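Example for tutorial group B:
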């Protein structure tokens, strides 16, 4: 049993989950509401104050031009000078603008070197505008960069832990522009399912209609439910969404088997079924052992020479004890796990077996290989 525990850990865990079929989930945990979303921001800036671990100005032309341009804006003419500093690094700054931010709100930013800098440890990010997909500036970032990784080196050895060329600035950006979106003025609200499914979208609409007492919600496709704002919630869509997202439904999902061949992970849904099929699994193992021996003449012998005599031992293991196992028609996930365990196979062999069952047309599920 100890040998099979690791081999079927993921299958057993999900087979246990099959016993909890029908568990209800809040609507807010499986959907997104129209207009309530995050936005991605990006910017280009300079980190200064590095202890000789910045970009090589001679090779990183963009760092040099950025530094010269910044100095010129500050009234310093460095265009004709031969800059030799290695305490500056060019970086990309990224951030996530939350939904409905107000001016003055602070958000976290991530700073990543794009040149040949060795480390951003101890650096200070200068004022960096952060723009959205529309090219408008929504936030401005500045502050000391916190780096979790480090690197150190000597004449003959070096050590690096983590990623010293990337860091974060907690509350490092200030929101300068708000996203105008009047949620309370909406007459209809679209609900987007994170995992589109016809059955789930219909169940969500039915739960909303039962709560409100009228046909205000209708599924338009597997991933969208369209909901009218009733008169009792007029100009108060926030209250409607607050009440709706607490309703509970039972999400449905297609029968699916997901396989990661690199790690040997197998994930099965509870609706996976297999038609009648016979399975036999076995491996042919050939072991060749070389044990050469040395033959030499007796002491003080007048003739003869020392030679190496080869000795080869070959062993063949064809797993004759492996037998054919029959899985009955329409077995459940638990029965499938028990059948695979009875074969005494590991994750790698299970992957091959599942692929062979799918090729035979007996696996009634979608098979996805990562």
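The residue assignment follows.
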């Amino acid at each position: 049993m100890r040998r099979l525990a690791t081999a079927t850990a993921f299958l057993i865990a999900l087979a246990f989950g099959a016993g909890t079929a029908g568990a209800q989930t809040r609507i807010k945990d499986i959907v997104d509401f129209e207009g309530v979303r995050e936005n991605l921001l990006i910017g280009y800036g300079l980190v200064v104050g590095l202890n000789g671990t910045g970009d090589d100005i001679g090779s990183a032309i963009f760092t040099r031009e950025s530094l010269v341009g910044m100095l010129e804006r500050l009234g310093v003419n460095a265009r004709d000078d031969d800059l030799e500093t290695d305490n500056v690094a060019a970086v990309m700054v990224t951030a996530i603008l939350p939904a409905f931010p107000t001016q003055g709100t602070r958000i976290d930013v991530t700073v990543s070197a794009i040149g040949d800098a060795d480390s951003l440890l101890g650096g200070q990010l200068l004022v960096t505008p952060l723009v959205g997909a529309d090219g408008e500036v929504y936030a401005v970032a500045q502050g000391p960069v916190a780096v979790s990784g480090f690197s150190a080196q000597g004449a003959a050895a070096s050590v690096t832990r983590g990623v010293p060329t990337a860091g974060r600035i907690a509350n490092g950006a200030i929101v300068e522009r708000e996203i105008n979106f009047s949620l309370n003025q909406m007459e209809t609200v679209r609900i987007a399912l994170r995992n589109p499914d016809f059955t789930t979208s219909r169940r969500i609409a039915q739960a909303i209609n039962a709560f409100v007492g009228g046909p205000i919600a209708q599924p338009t496709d597997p991933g969208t439910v369209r909901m009218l704002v009733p008169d009792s919630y007029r100009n108060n869509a926030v209250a409607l969404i607050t009440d709706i997202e607490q309703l509970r439904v039972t999400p449905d999902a297609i029968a699916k088997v997901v396989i990661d061949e690199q790690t040997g992970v197998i994930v099965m849904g509870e609706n996976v079924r297999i038609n009648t099929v016979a399975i036999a699994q076995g491996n042919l193992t050939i072991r060749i052992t070389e044990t050469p021996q040395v033959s030499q003449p007796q002491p003080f012998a007048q003739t003869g020479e020392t030679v190496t005599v080869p000795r080869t031992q070959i062993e063949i293991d064809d797993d004759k004890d492996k037998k054919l196992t029959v899985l009955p028609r329409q077995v459940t996930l638990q029965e499938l796990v028990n059948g695979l365990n009875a074969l005494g196979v590991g994750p790698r062999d299970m992957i091959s077996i599942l692929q062979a069952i799918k090729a035979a047309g007996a696996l009634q599920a979608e098979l996805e290989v990562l």
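The mean pLDDT is 79. Compare this with the pattern of hydrophobic and polar residues in the output above.
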